[in-house]
Amino acid sequence: MRILGIDPGLQTTGFGVIDADGSSLRYVASGAITTTHLDRGDLPARLKVLFDGIGELVARYSPDVAAVEIVFVNVNPQATLLLGQARGACVTALVARNLAVAEYTALQMKKAVAGYGKAGKPEVQEMVKRGNGANRRGRAQACGGCRAVPDHRRPQVARGVPGRV
Questions:
Q1: Is 0.90 topped by the overall pTM?
Q2: Is residue 150 a contact partner of residue 23, using CB atoms and an 8 Å limit?
Q3: CA 151 to each of CA 15, 42, 68, 112, 157: distance values in angstroms, whole numbers, following the listed order
Q4: Phi/psi at 103 (nearest 5 deg)?
Q5: Per-residue pLDDT for the chain (165 aa), expressed as one digit of tens each?
Q6: Residue 54: in which H helix or E strand, if any?
């Protein structure tokens, strides 16, 4: 099963693609879609870049499913709203291409990938690197890794978040 993991952001949206075969994970690709070349005030253009970028990833890597990190409220409500719109553009691009989308919190991803929900970034990165057999980092990879974890090993809450089409 090929999984596209997405870590949404308005300036930079990370992605990771992994192939899962049972408990074996194989790194395929990772990178970022950026909107930093556009005027920060041109929100519609930035959202279009994200939407189109996700579409290009789906066309290039032909994933079977996608996993997207769930956004939580930050201290700055305006930043939270903007991030939510970026996430919406990403999820919409995925479902417009008929992909099932699973959603995970950062805590769920850390628990599934590193075995501990409060694991630090270096611990998660090391587990992603080991699990994928490549020296790659990123929460998008971890998100895809979380989707690849067999149901019985996923965090309990993750089983309660169904994939959506």
A1: no
A2: yes
A3: 23, 41, 17, 10, 11
A4: -120, 135
A5: 898 989 899 999 988 888 888 777 788 888 889 999 999 999 999 999 999 999 999 999 999 999 898 877 778 888 889 999 999 999 999 999 999 998 888 777 777 767 777 777 677 667 666 654 443 345 555 555 555 544 433 333 333 333 333
A6: helix 43-61
